[in-house]
Specification:
Layout lengths: L1 E8 L3 H11 L5 E4 L7 H5 L8 E2 L3 H4 L3 E2 L6 H6 L2 H10 L4 E4 L3 E4 L4 H14 L3 E3 L3 E8 L2 E9 L2 E12 L14 H8 L4 E7 L3 E3 L10 E11 L2 E13 L2 E3 H16 L4 E6 L6 H13 L6 H6 L4 H10 L11 H12 L1 E8 L7 E6 L17 E3 L7 E2 L4 H29 L1
Parallel strand pairs: 1-2, 1-10, 2-7, 10-19
Antiparallel strand pairs: 3-6, 4-20, 5-6, 8-9, 9-10, 11-18, 12-17, 13-14, 13-16, 14-15, 16-17
Helix pairs in contact: 1-6, 1-13, 9-12
Amino acid sequence: MENWDIIIIGAGAAGMLSAISASREKLDILVLERNEKAGKKILITGKGRCNITNMKSWNEFSLHIHPSPRLLKPAFFTFTNQDTRDFFESLGLNTVVERGTRLFPVSGKSSDVVESLTKCLTQNGTTIKFNSRVTEIKTQGQNITSISWNKKGIKKSAGCKALIIATGGLSYPSTGSDGDGYNFAKALGHTISPLFPSLTALMPRNYDIRLKGLLLKNIGISLLLSGVDVQNDTGEVEFTDAGIEGSLGYRVSRKAVRAIINGEKVSVVFDLKPALTVDQILNRAEREQKAGNCRNIAQLLGLLLPSRLVIPFAEHSKLKPDGRIDNRESLALLASALKKWTFEIKDFRSYDRAVITAGGINTGEVSAKNMKSRLFDNLFFAGEILDLDGDTGGYNLQIAFSTGYLAGREAAHLINTSNSAEVK
């Protein structure tokens, strides 16, 4: 049976950074990837453009990490978002900051990110075996001793001095994410916090398919759970065949999905004119009416909303498109509807469309300072498999890069320390 210093399960963002970090110590490293190529999920991030990270300072960055940033903090400061940018630039991948603090490759191609990582791995001497699905992890006492995997129907095994599990979660199963890592962790005695899809589409009750394809920018959103306002934000929302998506939909989806699972009533309220008060909307409506620019509700809404939204919005808000606007009462109803366009959410899209898996390996069973299991002396975790997830905007890839880098570095340190002790 062959032997390796470190075996890493998974060649996604976390797995590849683990290998790159550990390889700096000139160790023998094997990466086992069940797919035919590395980084399949990276390829679809950012709609194929790959939002590499978010350049916010830790104080701002940490506000976008769930359920708590505590586990991430040491890893983040070991390999920061600026380190991420510098790393990719050192590999020859030029980057650019867009939309405030989001980092993308200048090329706009996620494939360039994957290519940079895989090229770095091979140059560092890391061995990657594709189409290799891990089937068993063997232990002795508090140590991982060997790994078995299946490749094209042939069972293979190898010993290791340290193991890093970076298998990802359940989101986008088409990329190979089927929860294997959780099963491995449970078999080893680890606790898995409840799993649920996050950054996913929310489906309103009686969804009007005419909204499909609409992208609304610079609007406000409020999330109501059992009638209580629990989250507010501004940005853009996209109506798709799966319901409410876009940055706003994704931001509230984590709390919304969890509430739906728990049987709570969930609603989202859109403020289509967040820069205007009800009185300001009324005053504008009266000015437009006096100027002869509109004679009914539909014509007035046409001055305030995208044309495709006018009729669906009016009907949803119980406003008659041909209704008169010559009295302040009807105008007040219209203004109020623009500020509180409400949808009751009945369901959500599952892992087939969810960007990230919330929940995972219990954070109390993983050491924040080195990503090492508290149950085994040579077992480490990195990435989405942890009970650690972020909002949309580059946060989740940074979680993968930071935890992967720290896990790889610490696994290498463990082996070097052990080797030194043996020499003595």
